Fold this protein.
Amino acid sequence: MGIVITNVGPATTVQDAGRIGYMAFGFQASGAMDMTAFRTANILVGNDRDAAAIEMTLIGISGEFTSDAVIAVTGADVAPSVNGISIPLYQAIKVRKGDVISCSFARSGCRAYLAVQSGFYLKKVMGSYSTNTKCKIGGYLGRPLQKGDLLYFNTTEPCCDDGILYADRLLEASAGKAPIRKIAPPEALTSPSAIRAVLGPQDDYFTDKGIKTLFDGEYKLTNDSDRMGIKLDGEIIESKSGADIISDGIPLGAVQIPSSGKPIIMTADRQTVGGYAKIAVVISADIPVIAQMKPGDTLRFIRVSLEDAQRAYIDALKDVEKLEKRFAKLWNAAENGGLTGKIKSIFKR
Amino acid sequence: MRFLTAGDCALVIEFGNEISGALNARVKHVYDWLKTKPIQGVCETVPTFRSLLVYYKPELISFKSLCEKLEKISAEDLDCKTAPKRIIHIPVAYGGQFGEDTANVCAHTGLSEKEIIDVHSGTDYLIYMLGFLPGFPYLGGMDKRLNTPRLKNPRTKIPEGSVGIGGEQTGIYPLASPGGWQLIGRTPVKPYDPSRETPFLYKAGDYIRFVPVTFDEYKRIEEQAASGVYVCAEEIL
């Protein structure tokens, strides 16, 4: 069946790759903040890369499995354990019905992902499983997860290969030819983190001094940061004569400068349009880095060309494809019709 | 017209730097074009007052080649094209419990309640763009006689469907939200409903006409809308 949540932090939601095609109607994109960690979790358990997964912020979830499953935790180190046995991040793990997963406060990073093979049995809203808390749609009842929630999986009979081990048998060598479904976690964040950004679209609203400040200064994440935007504290960015524009579209990673002069990096739940000038845009490849930064962490912006930014984007995409090639897909939503017989009969009752 | 980079996966076509129907028509032209004849590699577009944000996949199309294609589309002479004008009729029950601030608007404008309704429902409003909330229309064309400053103390919750005036603007709240607009009426239809096959009643570039209805009609339409049988009238000119 699934997992019963027994403990959960305040900002834990179901996310996928986001709601595509409705931004023209004022609908936020949503989607996982750290797409790399999110996709890696899915690929490790044998899912489509963009299957729905649980995104946890700062505090990991705990819960009891009500069926066998194959799981992986990626992103922030929330110290996951199964029945008290610590499990590594970035590795697919087999769990049995009745097993208990526990996570704690993030020891490093900010957002962790829990993927389950076959994904969660939920309804897509406007083409996506992503939770949009502002509109109260998608994910689990359109809201963050709470203690007591029961999330069903799409299968109760996970497919395993020899590369997937139980938590209590992690030390056993892989019996067959399958590579252990495990990758090295990304390197820990440096302090300050180097965040690459491309100038524009409205860099002409700022003085040379303002642009220099952005790339010379060090900025600190404030407590006021969430999935909509990461608010930074640091030296004020000087504009030529105010940074208000006629409202226009806000791309992912936009560094907008409100009247306070302090930058805000716009992320997954950003509004589609806004009236603040955007001095630069963080490159796609560095959005996952931003997503793993906690309030109090510091960053420096590094100016790069569009060509370099697109090269980094394509490299990141190739890394995902490489990972997919390394680990075969074990579960296909289309072939299985999304549900196994067992679950179907439960819902018929 | 100019092209601006907006990171590695988006660009902005900016047609000018003012709010005008003429500039917005050029935005709509490219937006509509991409809807009917998609360019491979373009994922999504966001039309705004005077610009179009275009999200694209750099692995499928380069910035330069996308700009060239968009430039050709933008350069088409709009005058020789008769872009059809779609007008959506939105029923509104004015005043009473739904228009709590009507008295404020009367006091500020010097118009009677009937005059406010006549003037407000007597114009077709261009939807420059949608934003702020899903389906929240930024409308152009409100009669200046209706201009009324926002409330000094914004409400913490404006009910879904509220129609109001904020300064020189008018609009509908598709979802309950905090806000400082002067409320003059409410529509029983849902501008945004995720359970509907077409979640939104209108899109950027369409026009809205507010059609006054009685409170009895409001109730009837509300029931029909809830059971999914009510369809807003529309004209195409």
Observations:
- Residues 2-181+331-348 of chain A form one domain.
- Chain A is about 15% helix and 25% strand.
- Chain A has two domains: 2-181+331-348, 193-311.
